[in-house]
Amino acid sequence: MAHEDVMPGGVGVEPVDGGEGLTLTFPDNRLTVLLFGAFDAHLHRLEARLGIACYPVGNRVTLMGPPEMLERARGLLTVLYGALEMGQRVDEARVEAGILALERPEDGPDPLDEAAVLKTPLREIRPRTPRQADYIRELTRRPLVFAIGPAGTGKTYLAVAAAVLDFIEGRVGRIVLTRPAVEAGEHLGFLPGDLQDKVDPYLRPLYDALYDMLGYEKVERMLGRNQLEIAPLAYMRGRTLAEATIILDEAQNTTIEQMKMFLTRLGEGSRVVVSGDVTQVDLPSNRRSGLSHALEVLKRVEGISFVWFTHRDVVRHPLVKRIVQAYEEAATREGMAAGRLA
Q1: Please, are residues 301 and 262 in contact by the beta-carbon 8 Å criterion?
Q2: What is the largest CA-CA distance in the chain?
Q3: I need a surface site. Which of 34, 120, 135, 268 has the fewest CB within 10 A?
């Protein structure tokens, strides 16, 4: 009979005869059900992504495949089981984050690390990719962070979560969220209502994130007490914001003058996050994006962090990731062609 080793958490590991597999035994049947997922969905994800086969029976699972992939799967399942023992949730997003960390260990911190978890009143927010884990760490370390990359990578959502945590734990006295009111092909003048009514649709994603983390009533109370401000970028002119977390969303649609104006609002005890996608600029063709300009001007300034996201960090529908990748590849080809023509 093969010898069975015991891993941390009491997980038994027994090699399968022939050396092409491992059998893992988990002590708690109830936690094992959560570990494997509904209809063994988490194991199916491991099979598809790591190229192994999983054969679950009760509180045991036999893994078959290449030794390197078996070791990765064993390590991930052991870590996830340990998380369940500590009362943490293991869902599809967390399994995916663990697989991504296995596939690209050089990309940055482990997204399963508890230090990268943002615990807001209504939601525990975990990074799903190593780059997101790195972003969360930078949000806690630097007074000014630039987050650049395509939609769906969590740039704004994670920044809002970090801002909520800063406020709840008393590091700042208020949260200021802003974005430029630049039309993506439409015209503000045709929208009904006063100025606030016209710009509210542009600020809606920020409201949605706050409702998700704090709830509607808490957000409304904070707005009434001036602890929370959500406003167009033009409202920032002439102010100095101290003891606040300030987030500029859709920063690619700022002009150079607007970006300089915004960055100089930073006051004592404040943190600023600037997020945007330099490939999605809605400014007139004769105006340069303030975000693109800032990335060049500030790249050597001490105290500023730059986090770059790619299609690999998209956490929306898998098709969105493939669409973003296709556009990134097209932009690379077009850039190379332009270089040849120059």
Answers
A1: no
A2: 78
A3: 268
Angstrom distance (rounded) from CA 168 to CA 156? 18
- Is it the case that residue 193 has pLDDT exceeding 60? no
255 close to 290: Cβ distance less than 8 angstroms: yes
Query: What's the whole-model pTM score?
Result: 0.69
Question: Comparing 33-37, 97-101, 175-179, 270-274, which segment has the lowest mean pLDDT?
Answer: 97-101
DSSP tag of 241: B
Q: How far apart are CA 221 and CA 239, in angstroms?
A: 23
Block residue for tokens 């007074």: 143
C-alpha distances (whole Å) from 126 to each of 132, 135, 278, 331 are 9, 11, 26, 31
Cβ neighbourhood burial of 105 (10 Å; 0-12, 13-18, 19+): exposed
**Pure H helices in the chain:** 29-36, 41-50, 67-85, 92-103, 130-141, 155-168, 195-214, 216-224, 256-263, 290-297, 318-341
